[in-house]
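Weekly modeling sync, notes
Attendees: AB, CL, MP (scribe)

Item 1: holo prediction request
CL wants a bound-state model with NDP before deciding which constructs to order. AB pointed out that an apo prediction alone won't tell us much about the pocket. Agreed to run with the ligand included and paste results into these notes for async review.

Input as submitted:
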Amino acid sequence: MSTASLSSTFLDRGCFLKSEERLSSLAKQNGNKKYFGRSNTLPFKSLRVSNSKPGQEARVALLGASGYTGAEIIRLLTNHPFFGITVMTADRNAGKSIESVFPHFVTQKDLPTLVSTSDANFSDVDAVFCCLPHGTTQEIIKGLPRRLKIVDLSADFRLRDISEYEEWYGQPHRAPNLQEEAVYGLTEIYREKVRYARLVANPGCYPTSIQLPLIPLIKTNLIEHGNIIIDSKSGVSGAGRGAKVSNLYTELTEGIMSYGVTKHRHVPEIEQGLSDAACSKVTVSFTPHLMPMSRGMQSTIYVQMASGVTIEDLYHQLKVSYENEEFVKLLDKGIVPRTHDVRGSNYCYVNVFPDRIRGRAIIISVIDNLVKGASGQALQNLNIMMGFPERTGLEYLPLFP
Ligand SMILES: NC(=O)C1=CN([C@@H]2O[C@H](COP(=O)(O)OP(=O)(O)OC[C@H]3O[C@@H](n4cnc5c(N)ncnc54)[C@H](OP(=O)(O)O)[C@@H]3O)[C@@H](O)[C@H]2O)C=CC1
Ligand SMILES: CC(=O)N[C@@H](CCC(=O)OP(=O)(O)O)C(=O)O
């Protein structure tokens, strides 16, 4: 596909802000291949594209670079032609080089040394990925210069209702004014709001895997709103890199563990998104499980179809909703989505199956919790906020097996 035809595809889809001339010149600088067209770059192959020197296009600060989602953003940005990382922060690991924390970055010699967040200098920064634990993030983001575009991966700005945040997260909200301007970054659903946002609250991994298939079906009244049962499973990287007894190999291997039963903090986030789609309050039964795998997430969702609706209607609606989307794929009928098939990629694979109980359907959705469930979607959002094509730096095929 030519540069011109690809860029007009982006224009048609409303995913593109730069002028054609600028795109062509940027494409030329990159040998016309890293940025345009589909790359077959293998996941985990660490490449630094020729013009991605820090400062050349957009300068990024990465807060929480020594955590799992921070590392995943570094990996994705090594293949991004327009972002350079100028600041990286850590807490216990402040003062270290990134390769001493993550030896898989040994080839990335031009990454900055980790500093503590309080020592970070934002004068050479245009945008921030905030990969810090929830609860610490509001204070830190409140202190950042207002000219910065921010994508926050924590849960601190996801719930519009401050009292709901305080109830589910057990602490006062420390930046209620910023909450008002935060845009919820489930990209495929809120793309136009993301485009003009200064602060994006990146969705949780479970809510991403659940809302992507359910929102189109709820919006079109194809499923009952009062009878949604969600069973989700996550790889252990979803819990972060911090040491916890419950994440020890011995506690996890050869077993499955339900947790947060009846009270997981993603419930209000899921219900907020589904209620918005329904224009009325939607409640769900949701149980997450920890699986003995490092990354990957599956949500199996049991729904009651509305009166007169068939499985064909559900399939057709998902097809129509996502046929022009790069990162959400409805599989062919009968094909079961597997976490293996999206590993290391920004894809969400979905399918819908008729239950043997008349009138019910089973939806299966898979993502990589660290990519579409966190860092990949965060980059997708920042690309849009900065006017770069949405899939830049995200064109990784899944790593299989
Ligand atoms: N893991 C996942 O799949 C997903 C995670 N998220 C969210 O993204 C955020 C980051 O998650 P993840 O990368 O997994 O977490 P990690 O625990 O792996 O990393 C946390 C990072 O924050 C730093 N940090 C910890 N405490 C503080 C503090 N008080 N002040 C400043 N920095 C601090 C850590 O530094 P150091 O290591 O040096 O101590 C580390 O760099 C969390 O809010 C998480 O809930 C969202 C979706 C999915
Ligand atoms: C396996 C595991 O522990 N997963 C995390 C969710 C990861 C995520 O999406 O977290 P945030 O909402 O904080 O961004 C959990 O259940 O709390």
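Recorded for review: Residues 16 and 245 are 46 Å apart (CA to CA).
Action items: CL to compare against the apo run; MP to circulate these notes.
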